[in-house]
Amino acid sequence: MGNEQLSLIASVLSATLRMSVPLGFAAIGGAISERSGIIALGLEGYMTIGAFFAVLGAYTTNSAAFGLLAGALAAGIFALIYGFVSIHLKAQQTVSGLGMNTIAPGLVAILMVAIFGNKGKSALTPNLQPIELPVISKIPFLGEVFSGHTILLYAFLLVAVLSWVIMYKTPEGIRLRSAGTNPEVIEALGLSVKAIQYRAVFASGILAGIGGAYLSIAQLNFYSSDMVSGRGFIAIAVFVFAGWNPVRCIWASLLFGFTEAIQMRLQTLGMPSQIIQMLPYFCTLLVLANIRTSRKKHHIM
Amino acid sequence: MKRAFSVLVCAAMIFSLTACGEDPVSDGKDAPEGDAAASGKLAVITGTGGLGDQNLNDYVYSGVKMHEAEGVTVDVVQPSDLADFPNLQTLYAEEGTYSTIVCIGFDQKEALTTVSKEFPDQSFIICDTECEGSNVTSVVFRAEETGFQLGVLAGLLVKEGALENSRGNNTIGFVGGSDIATINQFAAGYEAGARLVNPDVTVLRSYVGSFSDPTTATELATSLYEQGADIVFACAGGSGLGVFTAAEKQNGYALGIETNQNALSPDCIIASGTRAWDEAIYDATQKALDGTLESGLLSYGISDGMLQAERADSNVPVSDEIMEEVAAYSQRVADGSLKLPTTLEEVDSFLAEYAE
After folding, report:
1. Closest to B214 (Cβ–Cβ): which among A15, A118, A227?
2. pLDDT of B5
3. 3-state secondary structure A224-268
4. From chain A, which residues contact B within 8 Å (Cβ)?
5. Whether B207 and A221 lie within 8 Å, measured CB to CB
6. Does A225 contact B220 at a Cβ distance shorter than 8 Å?
7. What ranges in chain A are assigned the alpha helix state H?
């Protein structure tokens, strides 16, 4: 294999990693929320809030790290509104979850006009810088793929593993999963299901918010309207595909990131762009259809 | 409690949907009816991006606003959603006092096709797209001419290796918002211009599939730079901003469009293909005020002096010879001695006819 093909493969894989980070963060958040018994349909909204407040935070403090913090916190608080409506007031979760996706862009549009004077694009802000990994960056192929990403890629892998450990290996994780499947057990233990669910929803907001912040202050250095562009919905497909398992969310988001990265390369080969752009969505459909049939088999057994 | 909260949530949602719109008939109610020409009133319906976008909406609005100095009243409304277009067009048209109603952006076309039929006596202007209707004037710029100016510039720059960070592959790129006729009109002019001055140049093309997804645009542009492109033309509305981010990260060059975008990334953006919407719309609305506006297509181009490959604010050095050559080719388009292709399919036959 020639050098040229190798570096093409490296650049596709590197793009795959970049595209999968925002999906992955949001998907882990969604998985945690779903585990606690709260449907996570508002990820798109959380990401929008995260993307905007990250820019606002970075803009006001002139620090990308504070921006990230602001984006994550704002999205977490925003998710608590959904938590209040669906946990405390027991509202229909599908409706209120989707409602979050409508409120978020509206709220952001108002703030954009108030702060940046237009709805379209914010001012430029500092952004998270790529990190050169010490040894790996020197290795030809591996360096190109794995080095030179922002801290959030490495954080994503860490968060996925940590979430898995917490979910499956700690008492907190057992309580989280029981809150979703057997809430009466939690009640019997004298614990509050609602408290567990609030924590889970808050965590889902924070993680999806980081995913949104990745779009605005890692990939880019500004907020522009509708920039989340449906990634929150793809994240739903990711965590469903991953069976609400944080570590499997890594593989699932990599798969979706890969279809995105590959469609971008295929376009310049002169194939009809409309067909190639369907690829990620087509893949989503295939994956979800496959899940349904395999779950059915599982039930029969 | 629960009920009160749900009312509150509903109110918040309605507020969020309409927050950025203004009352479209704020000051028209008391005006005496039936004297459209005498009162001299114009209405503007912006695209969903709204005013302050430093782009099409602001640009068109400033053109209409120039009439205010002449005592003309200008009313403007900023819809926040595509679904608002038919309602706002109807509201203004029902007033019956506007000399013309200016609708900004191609996404108002569908709504206007229906609404214009219901008000056959009301004149409408739509910007940046062609729309059928006996009372509709479509104001457009010849997109292929803008593409051509930038294509000639890019073709010359990569041919002569004039750029400091050139990768030496004689390759340029194009990132379009969507694979649609309007965008491909730019692409056709771009490719025709580049290959006319530089027959061996490779022109890579890709499409974001959205005009509001700069993240995808940034990845697409990165992939074009990695494939050897020196210059990428960002022809993708709001998504195009992502191309400039990629240019900065990859040490590449970019071309902007519509307004002068050079200041957004002065070390990377070589030039912007500016289109003088203010002048074009001032001209068209003046005709409406005079009562001489005709329906159909009103297209402006290089020959009207409204299209430039604007260099101001860019720090990328380009020799005067190259700019003179771009001007010379533009002149040939203006005087009609070069007939540009408007679709990608026509590019080859254009080159067969004009290549030296």
Report:
1. A227
2. 54
3. ECCCCCCHHHHHHHHHHHCCCCHHHHHHHHHHHHHHHHHHHHHHC
4. 7, 11, 15, 18-19, 22, 85, 89, 91, 96, 99, 102-103, 105-107, 109-110, 113, 117-121, 215, 219-222, 224-227, 229, 260-261, 264-265, 267-268, 272-274, 277
5. no
6. no
7. 3-35, 43-61, 64-83, 93-116, 140-146, 151-169, 171-181, 183-188, 193-214, 231-241, 246-267, 273-277, 279-300
User: Which of A5, A11, A129, A220 should we substitute to test contact with B (largest number of B Cβ atoms within 10 Å)?
Assistant: A220
For residue B170, pLDDT over 80 is answered with yes
Indicate the DSSP class of residue B319.
-
| B143-274+319-354 is classed CATH 3.40.50.2300 | yes
Domains and CATH numbers, chain A: 3-300 (1.10.3470)
Please indicate whether, in this complex, the C-beta atoms of B49 and A119 are within 8 angstroms of each other: yes
Which of A19, A226, A260 is the closest to B212 by Cβ?
Answer: A226
pLDDT tens for each residue of A196-246: 999 999 999 999 999 999 999 999 999 998 899 999 999 999 999 899 999
A282 vs B98: which has the higher pLDDT: B98
In the structure, what pLDDT confidence band is assigned to residue A293 with cuts at 50, 70 and 90? low
Q: Whole-model pTM?
A: 0.87
Partners of residue B6 in chain A, C-beta under 8 Å: 89, 91
The residue type at A248? R
pLDDT at B122: 95
The residue ranges of every structural domain in chain B are 18-141+278-303, 143-274+319-354
Residue A44 in tokens: 């798109």
CB contact (8 A) between residue A225 and residue B216: no
Q: Which residue of B has its CA nearest to A227?
A: B213
8 Å CB contact between A224 and A122? yes
A146-199 pLDDT, tens per residue? Answer: 999 999 999 999 999 999 999 999 999 999 999 999 999 999 999 999 999 999
ipTM: 0.88
> Under CATH, which number does the domain B18-141+278-303 receive?
3.40.50.2300
B274 closest CA partner among B145, B162, B102 = B145
